[in-house]
Design brief:
Elements: H1 4-10, H2 14-29, H3 43-76, H4 94-123, E1 130-137, E2 140-145, E3 150-153, E4 155-159, E5 164-170, E6 175-178, E7 186-188, E8 194-198, E9 204-210, E10 222-228, H5 230-241, H6 250-260, H7 263-266, E11 290-291, E12 296-297, H8 300-308, H9 310-313, H10 326-336
The structure holds copper (II) ion.
Amino acid sequence: MFDCRHVIARCRWLPVIILLALAVLIPETASAQPPSPLSPASTEAKTIADLFTVVFWVALGVFVIVEGLLVYSVIRFRRRHPDEGMPVQIHGSTPVEVAWTIAPAIIVAVILLLTLRSMRTLYTPPSGTINVEVIGHQWWWEFRYPDLGIITANELHIPVGEPVSLKVEAADVIHSFWVPELGGKTDAIPGHTNQAWIQATQAGVYKGQCAEFCGTEHALMRLEVIASPSEQFQQWVQGQQAPPAVPSGAAARGQQALVTGPCAGCHTIQGTAAQGQVGPNLTHFASRRTFAGASLENTPENLARWLNDPPALKPGTLMPRLGLSQETINDLVAYLESLK
Ligand SMILES: [Cu+2]
């Protein structure tokens, strides 16, 4: 038979070695630095992170006290000799029970009050100067600025320091809008609007991700929030409001192919006959850093690969493979990359 005692005696240091190895290896593999809710860059994310910090230290204190008493008792009252009898058996102690009922009740009440205070901050948005409708689609995000007449995809532009009101909805199934550094998750539910707001405190590009499993490409349903100083934001707004440049040469052939081809049934390009509502609005496609749910960098090479075979880059995507010729693809790329 396998004798456990020998293995344990010999490998007494094994758990320590494993823990040390993990402590060294985990930060190594996690060096890609995913966005963390603990490095908040907005008023509401900070509210959440501050609450988390308090709860964390309280929980750590409770853990240390409880585990400390436990370890102390285990060592202090252990059976020292095999012939030692049973210890005195006791049952119940009113003072101790009162203490361990009241102390946790106080701790939980304090945490409750702090939580209610944070929730009040989170659910009373400062009156937003900018309104955005956030619409989750399988598997990309649509952003509409109804007051500014802008519709874009996967990249939400906001000015730093100003509260932005979000109305979160979904076109098909339930999604969840989540940008860890800018705030908590907001469910995107078909037929129901949820409210949220963001007030970015630092300029930057913040990565987000759909946080509710929504089908095949859930993992590639990403987004970016681009928070920039007010003048830069205004420049972006003007760029988006301007009609796209009139194409010439290859780009003009690309426009022709797009407007007369199947693309027009799914995509809108303002000022053209393409008015489809299935896929992202492409009016200012070239102004975006990324595409396809912020999963691909917006370069002519990636765009050509995408137009050739979308499901090869994003299996399950609702944009089908259209069997376009290399020439048509080149023209379409020239056109789309001219839509600044
Ligand atoms: Cu989703």
